[in-house]
Structure to design on (439 residues):
């Protein structure tokens, strides 16, 4: 486990030594901006150690970031580094949310919303001491931000590692907890501007999730043109793109992107389930579902299929 | 390494990853040739569909010997780009205005083109 701490004096590694075979403290704080090279160095060191037989064969590396971390530059580091990109595969982004104070963090810290949006799995911590009603409200809010994330609870800090690290092949509206939630797949204004009595705007960004499918197979080259153009123009506002895309082959393309950064798409050999429709979720800030749909509809001629909202009663 | 410009290309853009990986990974000679042809076909196809969009901005892109793309405007200016990731900022610079798939004017032009109307150029 690679542990990163924002403060000058690292404490976590003293606590984590017991639990982990190799703990490397990344010096000088935030992985995202100031010490990205440290992450590169730490991951390269692990490869060296593995090659020399100094450690057991690497199965998985967990990078624990600070609570203020932006996951995007970390993904970028791994995808773009000439050595790391060939030796490491980013499997999951996991965000933990404090069930007692989570609402407060989401109100106050835009980083929190982004961390939830970029997560593949969200773990609710401290559910043992939180009010049940509060947990329900928080879960609904988190689902509103990111319907594609698996949601797990870790009462007393305990969680089944196998369940936590379970691989997910893309995202299906029926697979996640959210799929059974009638509110899950509609376009959800997750965060509204909240004006307090003293006129203080607590949070002004509007985060929306839009899940859609296509009415036929899409041309992969043309979809790449559309999405790369969208990410160029609006990448800052597209917090997440995730899904399975029917490109007219035996299996779908697994798409996973965080802002400007897109995982190398996997062309799967077969569909993971019976549902052979494309299904893509966009989590955006300041870009409405209607804008995405109208744009995709205009591109229908080159993409080869038109978009359909997965939720019929979604406000467009 | 690009032998012409000396640029060390370490990143393959996500839009090209699949075709590039297949072209490089083939061992069997027959499959290798087929995958290389597929890669070239995909590059040509990518340039063609991107041109549907670029037409609105008075620009045109074409594959350049299977390694880069050449982006040109109507005034004879041109620039080399590596992939779609570097194409859009270069295109915006040549066009002198923002390129955005959410732009209603671009969408109207694309709808007009797919409905068989004369495609709009510039605006």
């Amino acid at each position: 486990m690679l542990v990163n701490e924002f403060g000058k004096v690292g404490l976590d590694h003293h606590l984590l030594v017991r639990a982990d075979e190799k703990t490397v403290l990344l010096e000088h704080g935030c992985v995202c901006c100031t010490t990205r090279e440290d992450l590169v160095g730490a991951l390269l060191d692990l490869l060296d150690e593995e090659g020399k037989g100094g450690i057991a064969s690497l199965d998985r590396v967990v990078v624990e970031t600070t609570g203020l971390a932006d996951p995007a530059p970390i993904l970028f580091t791994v995808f773009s580094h000439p050595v790391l990109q060939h030796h490491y595969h980013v499997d999951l982004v996991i965000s933990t949310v404090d069930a007692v104070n989570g609402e407060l963090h989401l109100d106050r810290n835009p980083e929190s919303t982004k961390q939830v949006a970029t997560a593949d799995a969200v773990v609710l911590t401290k559910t043992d001491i939180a009010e049940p009603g509060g947990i329900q409200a928080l879960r609904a809010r988190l689902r509103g931000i990111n319907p594609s994330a698996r949601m797990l609870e870790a009462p007393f800090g305990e969680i089944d590692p196998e369940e936590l690290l379970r691989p997910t092949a893309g995202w299906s509206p029926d697979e996640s907890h959210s799929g059974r939630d009638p509110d899950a797949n509609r376009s959800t204004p997750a965060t509204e501007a909240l004006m307090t009595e003293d006129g203080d705007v607590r949070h002004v960004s509007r985060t929306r999730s839009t899940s859609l499918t296509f009415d036929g197979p899409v041309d992969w080259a043309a979809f790449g043109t559309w999405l790369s153009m969208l990410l160029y123009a609006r990448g800052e506002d597209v917090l997440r793109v995730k899904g399975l895309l029917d490109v007219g082959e035996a299996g779908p393309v697994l798409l996973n992107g965080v802002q400007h950064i897109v995982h190398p798409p996997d062309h799967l050999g077969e569909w993971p389930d019976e549902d052979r429709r494309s299904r893509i979720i966009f989590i955006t800030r300041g870009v409405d579902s209607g804008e995405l749909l109208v744009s995709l509809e205009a591109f229908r001629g080159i993409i080869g299929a038109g978009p359909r909202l997965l939720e019929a009663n979604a406000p467009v | 390494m690009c032998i012409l410009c000396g640029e060390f290309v370490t990143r393959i853009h996500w839009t090209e990853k699949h075709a590039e990986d297949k072209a490089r990974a083939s061992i069997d000679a027959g499959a290798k040739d087929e995958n290389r042809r597929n890669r070239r076909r995909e590059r040509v196809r990518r340039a063609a569909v991107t041109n549907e969009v670029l037409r609105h901005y008075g620009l045109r892109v074409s594959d350049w010997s299977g390694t880069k793309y050449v982006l040109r405007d109507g005034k004879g200016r041109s620039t080399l780009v590596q992939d779609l990731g570097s194409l859009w900022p270069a295109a915006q610079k040549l066009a002198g205005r923002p390129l955005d798939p959410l732009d209603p004017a671009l969408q109207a032009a694309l709808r007009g083109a797919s409905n068989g109307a004369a495609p709009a150029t510039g605006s």
